[in-house]
Specification:
Layout (H helix, E strand, L loop, with lengths): L27 H4 L16 E2 L6 E5 L21 E2 L1 E3 L15 E6 L18 E2 L6 E3 L2 E6 L4 E7 L3 E7 L5 E7 L11 E8 L5 E8 L3 E11 L5 E6 L21 E4 L2 E9 L4 E8 L3 H8 L8 H16 L2 E4 L2 H13 L5 E2 L6 E3 L5 E3 L6 E2 L1 E2 H4 L3 H8 L2 H17 L8 E3 L2 E2 L8 H10 L7 H12 L7 H7 L10 H21 L3 H11 L6 E2 L4 E2 L28 H4 L7 H7 L3 H12 L17 E2 L2 E2 L18 H15 L15 H11 L1 E2 L7 E4 L6 E5 L5 E7 L7 E7 L2 E2 L4 E3 H5 L2 E8 L23
Parallel strand pairs: 34-38
Antiparallel strand pairs: 1-2, 2-4, 3-6, 5-11, 7-8, 8-9, 9-10, 10-18, 11-17, 12-13, 12-16, 13-14, 14-18, 15-17, 19-33, 20-23, 21-22, 24-25, 25-26, 27-28, 29-30, 31-32, 32-37, 33-34, 35-36, 35-38
Helix pairs in contact: 4-17, 8-9, 8-11, 9-11, 11-12
């Protein structure tokens, strides 16, 4: 698709003469705009969530079946005119839809049990709304439902969500619960569900769904701050006799529970003299544990106290980086930081129990289980960002969760794309491996390293997975036996290199040698004649015909083509540059990629191909490191120019401000790193490649009490290039930073200028790591 380029973020704050105006000094919290990414292809949600929260309480504007669900992957689209209600689980920027559990809908008058039609007001329980009355801040959301004139406010803690509804005076207040509703909805998705109403008005229940993660179980507990005057439970399943009972106004005592596949509940409260508050907790373990979670953060119904508590949590999380920049850029970067701190989320109950990939309940000892791992995306920058700015305990929790998931996996391997403890087998690679290795090599050691290495090796040698048996036998994945073989081969090779890195650091020389050799398997897919990574057949021949621009699902590449995937050799970029013909040839090929004329190409069939700049696709992850590769070929000023091109065109502080799916924080983490002036091209190397800064000043308040400051002297639209760099007051002639230099604290200072500096960081010794250290 063609991405419409918005105004440069820097230009939005330009004063006459090209000088960047001083930043507006709002707090980091107030600089965040959760509406960014809720339009276009961003797939983010605007609702209430705590940092790494288990509950994501947000409005759902529509539910579409099957293929139509892609655009509603987060439940909310900024351009929709109606809101269905508010559900408690959402993905932040995923490329697939699911969740949307326990939908609550406040209403007045008579309850309507079906959503109704968008273009027919009053035909169902959905309501029109206006963005003019909508508010979204970290941990808080509010909107007025125009049809009922109910003012709805939402906030959330880690395991609980709280709704506050202000009804029109004199009207009868009610709340509908629809357990049929789900993002990526289709007939038969709900396998079974239950709802119970206790004598004290507590509502509990569960549902099991067959969706992206099959057989997912979710339990809930709900309490209101007002006594019900009536309630009614309904089974709406088609093809069976109508089983509704307890019409509003009637509450027979012998009917307090209902089970089925299409349940709804109506709760009535009559006229109220103040707001109605609903407090909801979820659990993957049991209804009793949902009740436990309901009490875990606050015993009562103090909405403002929970909102303030979550605000403080966000203020602390966002304080990891103190940014000075023009207001539009500051909003974009702080919102990116916010989005990077949502997942992976807590998925253990207050007592430490969780449900694993074996569908059994387990008790975590000494850590908090986390889930929702979009690892094909997030190993690149999201997890490296967390290792830098999050406390070691959070990173240890994440890694111990991966190891625990492997222990409970029926296949004995680490997660691939997991949510709510369950594996989806989405995307390729075994990218838990670089997440663990990168953390270990950066000194995060609060986990069993031997158990981690065993899990990494097991995942990399599980022959039934993704052609690994052939990969181990042939040195590549053959396309006539396994789809997306070219992508799988190069991604496996990189993952293998990170295993080798961690094994060597642990003194496990035999394992290191085995995986160092496998790290060179990328060479088996490189075609010297065309200069591209290509898929090979089992007989060794490259598959033909070959078109480097072709993108088709299930073809040679994963969500991309040869242009994007031919650069994925982060562990051996020196080897790749040599194979492509050397520095000059690589610079020309990179330029050809960014400047490719797409006018005769149609990628409308490929959902994730967004944010194109030539054949560079920023809306999807395989391209994310490519702009930094000029540094490896001795042309860092070209990286600087490309980064400006990307930031100006792919990010803006508006609902359509993300060019592609945020993918659980990866798109956002890219912007956070890039705005600071450096990026982790090769997680596991402990190096960050220097690009150029996009903020005037940033202070990283690191977890162990150190501060690392980035200063950009003379930064402006007229000065887009790096003139010189210093580290702790001394000239820095190399084009990369080491992790230990950042965590030790200090200052990285850029002096920006109008023209490229073509002599800085160009010598081979000044370039980032370019060759696999132990490859044969």
């Amino acid at each position: 698709m063609r991405f419409e380029i918005g105004l440069s973020l820097a230009l939005c704050a330009m004063a006459p003469g090209g000088r960047v105006e001083a930043a507006e000094r709002t707090s980091a919290y107030d600089a965040v705009d959760p509406f960014i990414g809720t339009g276009g292809a961003g797939h983010t949600f605007p609702g209430a969530v705590a940092p790494f929260g288990m509950v994501q309480l947000s409005p759902d504007t529509d539910i579409r079946p099957f293929k139509q669900s892609y655009d509603w992957a987060a439940g909310y689209r900024h351009g929709d005119p109606t809101i269905l209600g508010f559900s408690h689980t959402h993905f932040s920027g995923a490329g697939h839809s699911d969740l949307g559990d326990v939908l609550l809908v406040p209403f007045t008058g008579e309850a309507r049990l079906d959503p109704g039609e968008v273009d027919q007001p009053g035909s169902g329980y959905r309501s029109r709304f206006s963005h003019d009355g909508e508010v979204s801040k970290p941990g808080y959301y509010a909107v007025t439902l125009s049809d009922s004139q109910v003012r709805a406010e939402l906030t959330a803690g880690v395991r609980t969500g709280m709704h506050r509804y202000a009804y029109p005076k004199g009207g009868s207040a009610g709340v509908l619960m629809d357990l049929r509703s789900s993002i990526y909805n289709y007939p038969g998705k709900v396998l079974w569900s239950r709802v119970r109403v206790a004598p004290d008005g507590t509502v509990t229940g569960f549902r099991q769904t067959r969706g992206w993660a099959p057989g997912r179980k979710l339990f809930f507990a709900l309490r209101f701050n007002r006594k019900m005057t009536a309630h009614a439970l309904y089974d709406r399943e088609e093809g069976i006799p109508y089983k509704g009972f307890r019409q509003p106004g009637r509450t027979p005592a012998d009917k307090a529970q209902l089970e089925g596949r299409a349940l709804e509940a109506v709760f009535e409260f009559g006229p109220l003299d103040g707001p109605l508050i609903a407090k909801v907790a979820i659990s993957a373990v049991s209804e009793d544990n949902a009740l436990l979670n309901l009490q875990s953060e606050q015993a009562g119904f103090d909405f403002d106290a929970l909102r303030a508590q979550t605000r403080r949590a966000w203020e602390q999380a966002l304080s990891a980086v103190d940014i000075t920049a023009p207001a539009p850029m500051r909003t974009s970067v702080y919102t990116a930081l916010y989005h990077s701190l949502i997942a992976p989320g807590v998925f253990a109950d207050a007592d430490g129990r969780y449900r694993g990939p074996d569908d059994q309940v387990h008790a975590a000892e000494g850590f908090t289980f986390h889930s929702t791992f979009s690892l094909w995306d997030t190993f690149r920058a999201e997890h490296p960002l967390l290792t830098l700015i999050q406390p070691p305990q959070r990173n240890n929790d994440i890694i111990r969760s991966l190891i625990a998931s492997r222990k409970h996996s029926p296949h004995g391997i680490l997660p691939v794309w997991q949510f709510h403890g369950l594996e989806t087998w989405t995307m390729i690679g075994y990218h838990s491996v670089p997440v663990i290795a990168d953390a270990y090599l950066k000194g995060i050691r609060g986990f069993d390293a031997q158990a981690a290495l065993d899990a990494m090796v097991q995942s990399a040698t599980y022959a039934p997975y993704g052609g690994l048996g052939d990969y181990m036998a042939l040195g590549y994945v053959p396309i006539d036996k396994e789809p997306e073989a070219a992508s799988k081969t190069v991604e496996y090779a990189y993952d293998d290199w990170t295993i080798a890195r961690m094994a060597r650091a642990m003194g496990k020389t035999d394992i290191a040698k085995t995986f160092e050799a496998r790290a060179a398997h990328w060479r088996n897919t490189f075609d010297a004649e065309t200069g591209f990574i290509r898929a090979r057949k089992a007989d060794g021949a490259f598959r033909t015909p070959f078109d480097p621009t072709a993108i088709n699902y299930g073809s040679d590449y994963t969500e991309g083509n040869a242009w994007q995937y031919s650069w994925f050799v982060p562990q051996d970029l020196g080897g790749l540059i040599a194979a492509m013909g050397g520095d000059e040839a690589v610079v020309k090929k990179l330029d050809a990629m960014f400047e490719y004329d797409n006018s005769k190409l149609d990628y409308s069939h490929a959902e994730d191909i967004a944010g194109l700049i030539g054949q560079y696709i920023h809306g999807n992850e395989p391209s994310h490191h490519v702009a930094y590769l000029y540094n490896y070929a001795g042309a860092p000023w070209r990286t600087q120019a490309r980064l400006k091109q990307i930031v100006d065109s792919q990010y803006k502080p508006t609902p359509d401000g993300l060019s592609g799916n945020d993918d659980l924080g990866q798109m956002s983490a890219w912007l956070v790193f890039t705005s600071l002036g450096f990026y982790p091209v090769t997680p596991g190397s402990n190096e960050y490649v220097i690009g150029r800064p996009f903020v005037e000043r940033a202070v990283l308040n690191l977890p162990r009490g150190k501060r690392f400051t980035v200063t950009a002297e003379g930064l402006s639209e007229a000065h887009p290039y790096v003139g010189k760099v210093s580290l702790n007051g001394k000239p820095l002639t190399r084009g990369f930073l080491r992790h230990e230099e950042i965590v030790a604290g200090g200052e990285l200072r850029f002096v920006m200028q109008a023209e490229p500096n073509t002599s800085w960081a160009v010598k081979p010794a000044e370039r980032p790591m370019t060759t696999t250290p132990y490859a044969p």
